[in-house]
Amino acid sequence: MSSVKSLLFSHNHHLLSVKGCEAGLDVLAFEGDEALSQPFRYRIEFTSADHAISKEMMLMKAASLTLQAPVAQGFGINVQQPVRVIQGVVTGFERLSTSRDETHYALTLQPRLALLNRSHQNAIYQDQSVPQIVEKILRERHGLRGQDFCSR
After folding, report:
1. Same domain, 9 and 63
2. Which domain holds residue 133?
3. Which of 34, 36, 45, 57 has CB 3.0 to 4.6 Å from 28, enough for a Cys bridge?
């Protein structure tokens, strides 16, 4: 079955996708923190029929949470429309519980920029402007690309 068909006929209000994870992930609940000048942080609880999802499969992988509007009631085929897509990287993962038919998991989704909080290094920079220093650090030490940040 193609992924397009599963998107069109999904009963979930929201979609969770993690790069490299082929298991079906059914979003149960999520909560997020967003503030000015702070990276966002979403905690997403989900279930899956796959009992073997591991930290190694999930941590540090690109992921997205697609928020969808409810399907309009009426006749005919209605497709849920995405309202917002939150893209980031999985920075936390845990298995909450397991039953015979599904396992309950939670993950934390943050922007790649939030990974900068996890490293501390000292250096002296001479004959460079602040934007040049920031760009050099982001590109060389953290592997960020042009689309990950913009300096003006």
Report:
1. yes
2. 119-152
3. 45
| Residue 77 pLDDT grade (very low, low, confident, very high; cuts 50, 70, 90) | low
Which among 27-36, 112-121, 123-132 has the top mean pLDDT? 27-36
The tokens of 102 are what? 């599904």
The whole-angstrom separation of Cα 84 and Cα 69 is 9
Q: Going by C-beta distance under 8 Å and a sequence separation of 6 or more, which residues neighbour residue 117?
A: none
Answering whether pTM is above 0.85, one says no
> In the structure encoding, which two tokens stand for residue 121, read together?
């290094």
> What is the domain-level CATH number for residue 46?
2.30.110.50
- The sign of the torsion formed by the CA atoms of 108, 113, 115, 117 equals negative
